[in-house]
Each structure stands twice: as structure tokens, then as C-alpha cells.
Amino acid sequence: MYTTLVYFIFVSGVTSFSTTLNLSDFFADQSHNFINFLEERGNEMEDAFSSSYARAMKMKNSFDNYVEEQQNKISTEINSYIENVKDRGLQIANSFSYVPTQDAASALPVPDAALTVPARVTRLGYSCETHTVISQGYVLNLHRIPHSKGGGNISSKTVLLQHGLFASSADWILNGPDKALAYVLADAGYDVWMSNVRGNVYSAEHASLKRNTKSYWNFSWHDIALYDIPAIIDYIMKLKGEDTKITYIGHSMGTTILFAMLTLRPEYNRVLTAGYALAPVAFMSDIKSPIKALAPLASNVARMEMMYGSHEFLPKNSMFGKLVTSCNNEYVDNKLCRNAIFQICGDNEKQYNETLLPVFLAHFGAGTSWKTIVHYAQEIMAKGRFQFFDLGPWNNKRIYGTENPPEYDLSKITLPIKLFWAQNDLLSTEKDVKNLQERLPATTDVYLVPHPKFNHLDYLWAIDAPSLLNSEIITSLQNSFENFPNN
């Protein structure tokens, strides 16, 4: 142990002495080694950075390629969608689209009930054109009788006829040349346009939505008033010129659309010459029809129907649709169908045209949405309010800003209005009509049809329509066009 310790001290001393002698060489070597060490570490760091940078750039390039691929994919899909939209109708949105209609069926021995509107019109010797207007993707087809049966120039005096619920442009021509309002107006020298609301048989197409989807049927008369009728009026004005004088005549829901449009789009108060409301429907708290008892059930029934994928109200292939169709069957007693109509709209044996019933029912149920039905049910229960669609308190607050849906502001209506009502109309009663009159301008005129049993549908098919209704409309039209400010 002692010997080992002495040896360690000796060796240490020798080493220390040797180191002292070569101190400068030692530091020179260590400095060189340190520099080499730093260079090696620097090279390693540079290699690591280069490798990380390369990986980052590779990731960036990969991401850029992915983004570019997705952009190209989306762009391709969008272009494909646009081309599809164009193919389905939007290419005509800004052009004048119409065809003089000569339906082949008009020359064949086809029953009147089976004829389309253009075929029926041309069969009777009148000219008929089909015009197309695009509104929110819905392809709306209008039927036009541009002049009288004898031909002649097209008048600047234009009338736009808007049908009611479950109906189509057929309403205005089914009663024949001497009684149906469209023919009477055409023969009196007016350019007659008959619109078809979105979703009915003549306006069934959409640029991108399929007819059997919820999105397609997500509308009520509010949307028609806000978008479709203004688009139709704009189209007519663009086609005929800005000095064109247009009078709007609506029946039932066609009047609801008019009142809503003039409040939502008040600029059209200055575009139209006048508005005629046949069987006006805005306030509905006093209706006498049995459908009043069904109103509280409408929302729940609609919800159940839509859960099972039925968004159209009573399509032709539904049980009710088949029941209506059965009224055309020779083995079914038409009195059953007649009585059902009388119960809902008001009875009037004297003005009832039995031979017209099968033709009328063949065109009835032209197509509407559950939302439209629910909106009317809400009107019935609204206790004297003419209001927007009730979405429920939470959604009302979110969409409208209030828990209750807002009312249509009828004070915005300045257009000369004439209300036509009847004592036996169960859907447009005296109390509701007078409530409406009080909210409209003081210049609003009111005409009581001079027949105590005149009902909601007699405006369309009454036997004595010429003397009870049409003559008053023609006289009023002449006065409104003569007094229009542009004259």
C-alpha cells in the first residue's frame, strides 16, 4: 500500500513536469481540437437543419399539391354544377324565353279534362305562348294569350292572373270562351298572362333540387310573394318595355300573394296599375269552412308527413289525390264530390256547372307544399293577424328578432286595390274582408258580388260569371288604365 502511494506521487510529478514543459504545445493542440469539434458540431447542425428543411419543404410541397388538387376538384365540381344548372334552365334566366304553343293534343280527339292549358287554349282558336322565368332556381312557366281570338296587335295593357291554392293557370280558362276570365280579357283587347306558382304541374322543375326533396318544398306563399311574382313582373316589363301597364288579378291565395308582395317589395306599388282581389284572403279568423277545425292539427300532421318523406301536400298519387281523381269516374256519383266542395267553399246549386266538374277536378291538386298549408293554418289561429310564418319562439327570435312572427305591414300598400267578395264564401268572409279593407288605403274599392249564394269557387266556374263578375272587372280595368299616372 505504501509502495503504491509513493509510485503514484512520483509518476504524477513527472507528468506535471512534462506538461509544464510543453504547455504551449498542449494549448495549441487543444485549440485545434476545439475548433475541429465546433466545425464537426456545426456540420452536424447544418446537416440536421438541411434535413429538417428538406422535410419541411417536402411537406409544404405535398400540402401545396394537396390544396391544388382539392381546388381543382372543387373547381371541376363547381363547373360541372354550373353546366348542369345551365342545362336545366338557368341559361334562359336573362333572356326572353317563350314558345308559341301548338300542342298536338289540341288537334286530337282528346277529352277536355286531359288537355294542358296551351292545348285547350289553342283548340279554341286562340294564340298561346309559354314563357319561362327563373326564380331561386324554380323554373316558372307562364301561359300567355297575347290578343283576341281574331288576332291583331299586342296591347300595352297587360293583365297578370294569379291562381289560388292547389291550382294552376287552368283556373282562368276552364269555364270556356264566353265566361272564363282569361278569354274575356283577351277578347276585350288585353295582353293576358297566367302565372304558375313554384311546385305546381307547370312549374315543377328546379335548376338543382329534386322534386322529392325537403329543400324543394321548403316554401310558402311568402316566398312566392317575395321572389317569384316580382321576377315575373320584371320579365314582362323587360319583354314589353318599361311603359307597360300591368294590372294584377288574383284569386284566393293569389290575393294573399299580392298583399304580401306589396308589403315585402313596396316598390311594386309604383310598377302595377292596380290590384284586383277576388275572394281576398289575408285575415282568416272568421272563416266558416269546416277546415277551421283542422287548423290546430296542421303542424303536427305536416311534421309526421315530412318525417316519412312527404313534403308535397296531397300529391296526385296520395289517397286524397286518388279520391279526387275518382270523381271523374263514370261509376262515381258526382253529387258526393259536389257536396264535399260545397261544404268547404259554400253551396250554390244555381251557379254550379255539373259538366265542368270533371274538367275542374282533373286540374285540381296541381301541387303545393305542406309549409303553405301550415302557414294558412297559422293564419286561421292567429286571431286577426296577417303574419309571417311562425317558426316557434326560439327560431322566431333568431330569424325575426321577436318571439312572435311579425305582421305584414299593410300600411306600405299604396296601389289602388279593389276587393271582390261574396256573402256565401266560407273562406273569405265579410268580417275578414272588412278587417282587410280597414288596413288598406282609403282609396280601396269594394265590390259585393250581387248573388246571395255566390261562393269561393264561383269566381272561376259560375254559370252567370259574365254578368255577376266579368263585366265589373272589365269596367274597372278600363278606368284604372285610363287613370294610371303614365297616361
UniProtKB/TrEMBL annotation:
Domain of life of the native organism: Eukaryota
Q: Which Gene3D superfamilies match?
A: alpha/beta hydrolase (3.40.50.1820)
**Where would I find the AB hydrolase-1 domain in this sequence?**
158-452
InterPro entries, sorted: AB_hydrolase_1 (IPR000073), AB_hydrolase_fold (IPR029058)
**Single GO biological process annotation from the record:** lipid catabolic process
Q: Per the record's keyword annotation, is Signal included, yes or no?
A: yes
Q: Which UniProt keywords apply?
A: Glycoprotein, Hydrolase, Lipid degradation, Lipid metabolism, Signal
Q: Where is the signal peptide?
A: 1-16
Q: What molecular function terms (GO) are annotated for this protein? A: hydrolase activity
The UniProt entry's sequence similarity note says: Belongs to the AB hydrolase superfamily. Lipase family.
Database matches in PANTHER family: LYSOSOMAL ACID LIPASE-RELATED
Q: What is this protein called?
A: Lipase 3
What species is this protein from?
Answer: Papilio machaon
